[in-house]
Design brief:
This protein is an alpha+beta fold. The protein contains 13 helices and 10 strands. 43% of the residues lie in helices and 13% in strands. The strands form 3 sheets. It has a 6-stranded mixed β-sheet. The protein has a two-stranded antiparallel sheet with strand order 4-5. It is globular, with a radius of gyration of 18 Å. The two termini are 25 Å apart. The structure holds 6-diazenyl-5-OXO-L-norleucine (DON).
């Protein structure tokens, strides 16, 4: 990994964004519907860039591990594409939902088929598919993320997983509802165990930027020395995942994110956001205070400023 010098324009951009973002502290609230997440100190901010040439840039709390929550849905979906292929589309759609991430309303009129793999219902179906394929999905996913980050210590937070599992009434309801339509194979209790562990995985911004590099690099991962590593997805598959992230990665704020930022993103209620600039690099940002739709206030601001300062845009490549 080459470290950047302070004189680099991207370092200067990150420093500027870090300074500007401080003014937004206090505008959002940390997630508290998962009791363990309510304990997180709200006024934290970290940001990391990883470029396809192997260089990295960080600012603030970029090396502090946080709960990736729904960002895990990106990685489980990629795993499902690899092991199930296009058959995933028999059980989940690929349209924006326009509804809250944990909404039930569309599921009845759409006969138990979730709109996309990134809302909770869709991610539960994906985790159900993977639970069928892996005897120990929790460790299989962790293994994949450990390889992508080159960090063998990466893990889920046991307290956060337990806290979510004990209060997962709505997700359990979504799973049973889909089961009533024949779109759920495994016992919901078992799938929820896996789902809560995947959401409780902890990563830093620096790790998240590295782990998602394959999406900016035509499906190929880079190791921590910036060298080509595992071909995670075919270039065409990476292109399609990015399209889904652009249209569905921020739930009912996906349109607003595309308008303000214009990059494929995945957000999580831990306050993390990962953004993909295809051909250029990845950006991970973390600040725990969320807006009403469950997306990081400072994170969205920081990404908007970054694209303004750099000109990075999905449509520019
Ligand atoms: O299932 C849940 O509600 C959480 N584990 C994840 C939700 C989430 O991160 C939505 N993101 N904005």
């Amino acid at each position: 990994m080459r470290s950047a010098t302070l004189a680099h324009p991207l370092s200067a951009a990150l420093d500027q964004i870090h300074t500007e973002a401080q003014a937004l502290f206090g505008q959002g609230q940390v997630a508290d519907y998962i009791p363990a997440l309510a304990q997180v100190q709200p006024r934290q901010f970290g940001m990391a860039l990883a470029l396809t040439d192997g260089s990295t840039f960080t600012v603030g709390d970029a090396h502090t591990a946080f709960s990736i929550q729904s960002i895990s849905k990106l990685f489980t979906f990629v795993l499902a594409l690899k092991v199930v292929g296009d058959a995933v589309w028999k059980r989940v759609g690929r349209e924006p939902s326009g509804a809250a991430f944990n909404s039930m309303v569309q599921l009845e009129s759409e006969h138990g088929i979730p709109r996309n793999p990134f809302i909770n219902a869709g991610a539960l179906v994906i985790t159900d598919m993977l639970t069928t394929r892996y005897a120990h999905l929790d460790y299989a996913l962790l293994g994949a993320l450990r390889r992508l980050t080159d960090d063998p210590t990466l893990s889920w937070n046991v307290q956060v997983a337990k806290s979510e599992r004990e209060t997962a009434h709505r997700n359990m309801a979504l799973a049973y509802f889909m089961k009533s339509y024949g779109n759920f194979v495994n016992p919901p209790e078992l799938v929820l165990d896996n789902y809560c562990r995947q959401c409780a995985i902890e990563m830093s911004c620096a790790q998240l930027a590295q782990a998602s590099m394959f999406l900016a690099n035509a499906g190929r991962d880079l190791n921590r020395h910036g060298q080509a590593d595992e071909q995670m997805l075919l270039p065409d598959e990476a292109r399609r995942v990015n399209a889904l992230l652009l249209t569905c990665g921020a739930y009912d704020a996906a349109g607003d994110f595309a308008y303000r930022i214009g990059l494929p993103v995945k957000t999580g209620v831990g306050g993390g956001i990962v953004a993909i600039a295809p051909g250029m690099g990845t950006v991970a940002v973390w600040a725990p205070e969320l807006d009403a739709k469950g997306n990081s206030v400072l994170g969205a601001f920081a990404l908007e400023r970054l694209v303004q300062l750099t000109g990075w845009h999905y449509a520019s490549r």
